[in-house]
Design a protein that fits this description.
By secondary structure, this protein is of the alpha+beta class. A hairpin with a 5-residue loop joins strand 6 and strand 7. Helices cover about 25% and strands about 30% of the residues. It is built from seven helices and twelve strands.
C-alpha cells in the first residue's frame, strides 16, 4: 500500500502568496504511526482578508487553510480521516492570530489531502532502505486535474462571470493586495523526524534524524526546495511500502 506524509508548506505558500508564519513537525515511528504538530500565525488583516475571499467564493479562497483555523472544521476533517486531534489552541494576540494543533495518526496516508492533496510517498528500496519523495497530486475520477477543472479564462483565479463584475473584481484585488503586502511576513519551517538514520537528503539542514526545510521572503520563489526527498535506513523498521521502481 502506498504511504503518504502530509506536505502542507508549498501548497499553503502558493495559496496565500507567502503571508504567514508556520512551523510543522512530523514524527513517525518504525511502524508508520506518528504525530504532526503545526503552528500557523498571520497578521489579523490577512486572516480577515482570507475570510472575505472565502465569502466571495473565489478560486483564490483556500478552504483547507480556513479549515485549520476553525476547530469544528478541523475536528470534522480528523473524524473523516480517522485521525485524532490531540490538541488545539486558538492564537489571538494583538499582532498575530492563528492556531496551534497536534494530530496523531496510525497510518501516514490518513493525512493525505489535508492541504489540497499535497503528499510525499514512502518507498522500499532494493537495499532495504526507504525513500521518501514528493509525488504528484492524483487526478480526479474523470481524469481532469484541479487546474484543468477550474474552467474559464486565465484571469488569476477570477472566473468568466466574475471578470465582468467590476465590484467583485475590485474587492478581489483589494483583498489580494493585503495578502501581497504581507508577503515579507513569510517564515515557514518544516521538520520531519525519520525512524531510521538519514542516508541522503535534500533538506536545508539536518539535526540527527530530523530533516529541516525552511522558506521565507528571500527564497520563496524557489518552492521546489520544499519538496522532501530523503533516503533513510530501514534497519529495524516495519513500514508497509511499495518497492521503488
Amino acid at each position: 500500500m502506498r504511504k503518504h506524509i502530509l506536505l502542507p508548506l508549498v501548497l499553503i505558500v502558493v495559496a496565500l502568496t507567502g503571508c504567514l508564519q508556520m512551523e510543522s513537525e512530523t514524527i513517525f515511528d518504525k511502524n508508520g504511526n506518528g504525530t504532526m504538530a503545526c503552528t500557523i500565525t498571520m497578521k489579523p488583516e490577512v486572516a480577515e482578508a482570507m475570510k472575505e475571499m472565502q465569502g466571495l467564493d473565489s478560486d483564490f479562497a483556500d478552504e483547507d487553510m480556513t479549515m485549520v483555523l476553525d476547530r469544528e472544521k478541523l475536528e470534522e476533517f480528523c473524524k473523516g480521516q480517522s485521525v485524532h486531534l490531540k490538541r488545539y489552541k486558538a492564537i489571538d494576540e494583538e499582532d498575530r492570530v492563528g492556531t496551534s494543533f497536534t494530530i496523531a495518526f496510525k497510518d501516514i496516508t490518513q493525512l493525505e489531502g489535508m492541504f489540497g492533496g499535497g503528499a510525499a510517498g514512502i518507498f522500499k528500496l532494493s537495499d532495504g532502505n526507504y525513500l521518501m519523495k514528493s509525488i504528484a497530486v492524483e487526478e480526479d475520477e474523470d481524469g481532469e486535474s484541479d487546474e484543468e477543472m477550474s474552467g474559464g479564462m486565465d484571469l488569476g483565479g477570477i472566473s468568466d462571470s466574475e471578470a465582468f463584475d467590476p465590484e467583485m473584481m475590485a474587492k478581489q484585488m483589494e483583498i489580494m493586495s493585503v495578502m501581497m503586502t504581507a508577503a515579507m511576513d513569510l517564515n515557514v519551517k518544516m521538520r520531519i523526524t525519520f525512524p531510521g538514520d538519514i542516508v541522503s537528503h535534500n533538506a536545508h539542514s539536518v539535526e540527527g534524524r530530523t530533516c529541516i526545510w525552511e522558506i521565507n521572503s528571500s527564497n520563496m520563489m524557489m518552492a521546489d526546495d520544499m519538496e522532501p526527498e530523503v533516503v533513510f535506513s530501514g534497519k529495524g523498521l516495519n513500514i508497509d511500502a511499495p518497492a521503488y521502481d
